[in-house]
Amino acid sequence: MIQERNRQTIESKPETGHGHAGTEGRAASRSAKSGPRRRAKRVSVLALAAAALLLVLAACGASEKSKTASSASPSPAASSGASPAAAAAGEPKLPSVLHYGFIGLNKLNLPRGAEGWGLYKGIIQEALAPYGVTKIESTAFPNGPDQSEALMSGRLDFGSLGDTPAILARSTGAKTRLISQNQIDLLSYLIAKKNGPASVQDLKGKTIAVQKGSYMHRYLVGLLKSEGVTGYKLVHMLSADGEAALARGDVDAMTNSGADALRLIDEGYPLLDDTTKHPELYGTSVTVATEDFLAKYPDFPKLWNEARLKALDDLKQHPDDYYAFLAQISNTTPEIAKKVYPIESIEEQPFTDEGLKLLDGTKQFLIDEKIATKNFELKDWQLAY
């Protein structure tokens, strides 16, 4: 939950000095009743007392003036809610509301990984609050192409998705920039219907369900090409629809991922292949932001990744709680969540050489297979900061 900082201005009223004036008045009254013999002496005493009083009042006034200036009139940094050091440093600003997209509909409406944990625990909100962020609106999408469309239409400021749909969007002219790779070992599984194909070679001439434009699509096409399988038919289906079609026997195989894939395997559906046998076909998860958003808020990538890293540090200290959180998102058990979404797979740095190599390989494959329409340089897409 977003934590708001309360500011309080403390006002100090200067002392009036009435106590001194009262004492002086009483002393004058007593002197007037004593007679003329001591008038000269009284005048001398009164003069000295008056001089002393003026010194005391001057000192008090200076002290109160200083106190009032420091508390009743706060510095610009205090009045803006920022620390004096931050104000002096010219602290960057972000919009009050961030619009963030991710893949995977679930009851918590949160992604997995450091991003999801950070939003769930309020770590990211707290980290960004000093820069003006009061709310982060998270929107789930069933697949990457739908999220890319939301980015291009301006409904989102930034989002996390698989590398393949992000690359495909960029190749069609989407004005996005790559700000991080969150995971570089996304697994895809190729699962057959019961009493159906027994190997990848058996898929010749068969119908396969796949989320077109996803990292699983890239894996499947790459696998079938490497195995020399031809004559197959790909039909676009989201995972839930693909599972239903597989159960009915309407398709011969489908790609799937995560806890859903393991559930199907446990239910007796044959596993034909997965990306652990083809590490060059691993998918990666990326975060991209629109160029318009970054033009207004150039400090966002750095601030977002710093907040994400705080969330990652926290979940590493609370692994059991994190896997229980994943179990809620994926509608599974913490044990299965630990198996398919291990903490070790979450990247600490925005970019690594290994991740960028996989990303470039995916881009080149999509270009070569004419799945992507236009080539571009990865270095022109990646945002250095």
TrEMBL record:
UniProt keyword terms in alphabetical order = Membrane, Transmembrane, Transmembrane helix
Superkingdom, according to UniProt?
Bacteria
Q: Which residue numbers delimit the SsuA/THI5-like domain?
A: 143-321
Q: Which SUPFAM superfamilies match?
A: Periplasmic binding protein-like II
Which residues does UniProt assign to the signal peptide?
none
Stretches of Basic and acidic residues bias are at: 1-23
Q: Which PANTHER family match?
A: ALIPHATIC SULFONATES-BINDING PROTEIN-RELATED (PTHR30024)
Q: Which organism is it from?
A: Cohnella zeiphila
**TM region positions:** 43-64
Question: What protein name is recorded for this chain?
Answer: ABC transporter substrate-binding protein
Q: Which residues form a coiled coil?
A: none
What Gene3D superfamilies does this protein map onto?
Answer: Periplasmic binding protein-like II (3.40.190.10)
Ranges for the region named Disordered are 1-39, 66-88
